[in-house]
Amino acid sequence: MEEGTELKDGDACKVNMVGYMAAPDGVTKAEPLPDAASGDNVEVILGEGRYMEGLVEGLYGAKVGDTRTVYVTFPNKLRDKTLAGKKAIFDVTVLEASNRSIPEVTDEFAANVRAGLTAESLKEELQKAVDAEDSKKYVNVRNEALASALAQVMDVDVPDTLVTNQAREKYALMMTEFRDNGMADDEIKKLITPENFVKYKDIAKPDIEEDFKVSMATDEIANMEGIEVPAADIDEQIKSLREQAVSEGQDG
Questions:
Q1: Which residues contact residue 248 at a Cβ distance below 8 angstroms, ignoring those fewer than 6 apart?
Q2: Which of 51, 66, 97, 169 pairs as cysteine with 62 (C-beta 3.0–4.6 A)?
Q3: Can you give the C-alpha Rg of the chain in angstroms?
C-alpha cells in the first residue's frame, strides 16, 4: 500500500491497542482493560461483523502512523462475562497497512492449489466446505427449536422434587460462579437464604420442566423407533456434559 493511503473496507493492518473501560458517559476513559483485551501487533482486517462493534468503523480512513481513539461495544455472548456487552475505549496505533486482493479463480490457479483441480471443481469443493460450516453454525439453533417443540407437545406432570433438586444444583453452581468472579464469601453467604432459593426456583422452573419433557420425549421416540444407544456412548456423553458444566462454572 502506498504511503499516506487511507484504510478502506477489505484492507488489512497491524495495530497496537491499549484499552480502557468506558465511563458512564460512554466517552471518558475509566480503568484499564485486562492485558488480554489489549495487545501489540494485532492484525485487523477491515470488514463488517469481523470484530467487536465499533473497531473497524473507527479505523476507516486511518493511515500508517495514525493513532485513533476508537469506541467499541463488546459482544453480549463474550465468554468473559465481566466484559460482555460493556462499552470500552481503545487507543489504536496503525503500524502497517496492506491491500488484500482476491485472485481470479482459473484452471491454472486451481491446479496450483492441488494438482488435478479445475476452476469448476475448486468452486464445488469450496461450496461444500461453506455448506458444511453453515450446517454446524445452525445446528444448535435447530436443536433448540426441536427441543422447544417437543416440550410443548409433551403432556406430563413434572415432579416438584425433581424441580427442587435441579434448581438446587443450578443455584449452587451460580454461587460458585459468583465466587470465581471475585465475590467475597461473606457476600455469597448473604445470598444463600430460603427466600432467595424459592425466588430462584420459580425463575428456573420453566427451563427445568422443559428439559425434563424433552428428555421424556426423546426416550419415547427412541423406544418407538427401536433406537439403542451403546452404554459406552452414554457414559462418554455424561462425562462430556460434566466437564462442560465444570468448565462453564470456572469461566463464569
A1: none
A2: 66
A3: 26
Instruction: Kindly give the interhelix angle for 231-251 and 160-180, rounded to the nearest 10 degrees.
Output: 50
Q: Are 35 and 48 in contact (CB under 8 A)?
A: no
The set of cell numbers assigned to 237 is 456423553
Name 62's Cβ contacts closer than 8 Å, sequence gap at least 6.
Answer: 6, 7, 13, 68, 92, 94
Answer for the pair 46, 10: CB distance below 8 angstroms, yes or no.
yes
The pLDDT tens digits along the chain (252 residues) read 567 789 998 888 999 999 999 999 988 999 998 776 778 888 888 887 778 889 999 999 999 999 999 999 988 877 777 788 899 999 999 999 887 666 677 888 888 878 888 989 888 888 887 777 666 666 666 666 666 665 665 666 777 888 898 889 988 988 888 888 888 888 888 888 999 899 989 998 888 888 877 776 666 555 655 555 555 655 665 566 566 555 555 454
Q: Which alpha helices (H) appear in 95-193, and where do they start and end? A: 107-113, 119-153, 160-180, 185-191
Q: Counting beta carbons within 10 angstroms of the beta carbon of residue 54, is it exposed (0 to 12), middle (13 to 18) or buried (19 or more)?
A: middle
Closest to 249 (Cα-Cα) out of 171, 150, 194 = 171
Instruction: Write the CA distances from 106 to 110, 121, 123, 131, 173, integer angstroms.
Output: 6, 11, 10, 22, 56
